[in-house]
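queue> pop job 88
queue> type: inverse folding (structure -> sequence)
queue> payload:
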């Protein structure tokens, strides 16, 4: 998965990666050349007191060092550009993929996990790429080159590598076997702590109202402690790794000096060649250590890449048709024909045998007890989910054969949970129509009965809206959400329990204004409050996912027991009879 992700997103940067490889090659050759120059300087310059030779070789060494420094700076710059662009592209694709998900896929992953995958997981892969470009590609070049040069300097001393390198390999293998599972678990625990934190921030009012602050602190503490213990296990492994590798490195240096001194004493090797060999040993073992560091990053990046690819390869259950068939005229006629919907893994369908028609100029209300499938039915219209069986037609064409954007362009939705974006009031309202004028915004606010409280704000339409609209009351958020839909001036209004936070006077005034504004549009209202929908042209009563009755208020009071029970539980006989 890791290699697949890297290959997929590095294609546009092949030229820059090639440039990094050339810089690493130049850097490696210069690094390998320096010990040989140093050996010549000692053997032929210092030992013989030849000052001109010392200046000449010293100048070449200075030039080589400057070349290494320049290559390192340019290498860091290119690697940063590539890795940052890689992270940007990957995050954009993950975000775009998540945006295409239906409610089913969003529920499968969950918001905390999706956030972690698009932030922490992408960062892990991005960091591996940066370190890989600056270190991993250079380590094998330098290591192999240093082995060749070390053997060239002295074959006998090179035998020490047959001991040091295998010992390092065994240590690395043992460490990897311990660390890989820990890294996979760590990402899951990060998901968990994000979930708990998100719940506690979102539900802070409920937590305080039920005096559960201590219990929530304890729950977060347990999750936090669990993550800490996992990270401690990783850190302890690292704490053991570096001293062991440094011990092997230093023991190798001592062995080289010990056996090399004997060879120098016997005249088998000049002192300069011994220093060069020692430098090559250090380069070899340093390359191995760099490879070790990278190999410890790879498992976590691999786990992150798997989680990212899981998002990227999961296709939405609601997709655009290859050859969409859009209606010739958009009028807003809806028709349900024996529609059924069943959630994956559920024993029984949520909706069964749903058949009805909705026409422009009509207000259709959907009522029923909690869990009867009202919101699910409404979500089928804009294709947030697709029916298990049956057909939903919009303007005479099956919605599964129409383009998603074509359907959405016809719909103005006010969701059950009113949501506002961070920004200004005007920016939120222009979500319905980005070209809407201020006069059109005020007109929509007037319909939604929000013009009075917006006019009282210090900056009117330019007043700030906090994330989620938390600086407004529930009723104000609902009115702003309704105004946003009105600004769009859609053919179909879908209002999912959008009047629940309004008082009766505001509710009545809003419905009256909306009826006039949307007189040529199709209006579908899901409501719990009977007074909101009594005047609807058509009321659909749901009971356990089935239609219990369709008609006007007076007709249903005579024909539907379920509707009558709902009405009598909320209204007096006098109010119900009007």
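queue> result:
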């Amino acid at each position: 998965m890791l290699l697949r992700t890297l290959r997929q997103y590095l294609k546009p940067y092949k030229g820059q990666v090639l440039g990094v490889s050339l810089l690493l090659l130049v850097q490696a050759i210069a690094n390998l050349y320096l010990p040989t120059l140093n050996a010549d300087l000692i053997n032929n310059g210092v030992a013989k007191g030849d000052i001109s030779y010392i200046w000449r070789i010293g100048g070449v060494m200075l030039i080589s060092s400057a070349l290494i420094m320049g290559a390192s700076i340019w290498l860091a710059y290119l690697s940063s550009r590539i890795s940052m662009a890689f992270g940007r592209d990957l995050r954009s694709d993950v975000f775009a993929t998540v945006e295409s998900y239906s409610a089913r896929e969003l529920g499968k992953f969950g918001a905390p996990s999706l956030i972690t995958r698009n932030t922490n997981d992408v960062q892990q892969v991005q960091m591996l790429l940066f370190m890989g470009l600056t270190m991993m590609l250079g380590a094998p070049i330098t290591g192999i080159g240093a082995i060749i040069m070390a053997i060239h300097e002295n074959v006998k001393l090179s035998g020490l590598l047959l001991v040091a390198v295998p010992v390092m390999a065994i240590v690395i293998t043992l460490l990897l076997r311990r660390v890989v599972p820990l890294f996979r678990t760590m990402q899951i625990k990060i998901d968990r702590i994000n979930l708990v934190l998100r719940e506690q921030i979102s539900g802070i009012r409920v937590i305080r109202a039920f005096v559960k602050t201590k219990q929530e602190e304890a729950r977060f503490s347990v999750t936090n402690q669990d993550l800490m213990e996992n990270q401690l296990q990783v850190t302890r492994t690292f704490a053991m790794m570096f001293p062991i590798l440094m011990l092997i490195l230093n023991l190798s240096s001592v062995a080289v000096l010990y056996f090399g001194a004997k060879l120098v004493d016997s005249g088998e090797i000049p002192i300069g060649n011994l220093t060069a060999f020692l430098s090559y040993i250090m380069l070899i073992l340093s390359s191995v250590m760099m490879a070790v560091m990278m190999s410890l990053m790879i498992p976590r990046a691999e786990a992150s890449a798997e989680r990212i690819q899981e998002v990227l390869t999961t296709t939405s259950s609601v997709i655009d048709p290859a050859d969409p068939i859009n209606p010739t005229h958009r009028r807003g006629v809806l028709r349900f024909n024996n529609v059924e919907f069943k959630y994956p893994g559920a024993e029984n369908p949520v909706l069964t045998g749903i058949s009805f028609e909705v026409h422009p100029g009509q207000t259709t209300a959907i009522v029923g007890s909690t869990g009867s499938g009202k919101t699910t039915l409404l979500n089928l219209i804009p294709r947030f989910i697709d029916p298990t069986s049956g057909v939903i037609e919009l303007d005479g064409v099956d919605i599964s054969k129409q383009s998603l954007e074509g359907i959405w362009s016809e719909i103005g939705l006010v969701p059950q949970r009113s949501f506002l974006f961070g920004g200004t009031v005007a920016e939120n309202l222009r979500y319905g129509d980005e070209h809407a004028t201020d006069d059109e915004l005020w007109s929509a606010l007037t319909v939604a009965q929000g013009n009075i409280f917006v006019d009282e704000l210090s900056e009117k339409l330019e007043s700030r809206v906090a994330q989620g609209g938390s600086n407004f009351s529930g009723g104000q958020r609902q009115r702003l959400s309704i105004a946003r839909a009105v600004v769009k001036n859609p053919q179909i209004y879908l209002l999912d329990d959008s009047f629940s936070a309004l008082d009766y006077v505001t509710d009545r005034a809003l419905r009256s204004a909306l009826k006039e504004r949307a007189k040529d549009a199709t209006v579908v209202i899901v409501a719990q409050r009977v007074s909101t929908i009594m005047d609807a042209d058509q009321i659909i009563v749901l009971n356990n996912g089935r239609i219990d009755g369709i008609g006007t208020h007076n007709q249903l009071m005579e024909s539907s027991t379920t509707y009558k029970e709902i009405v009598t539980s909320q209204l007096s006989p006098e109010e119900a009879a009007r």
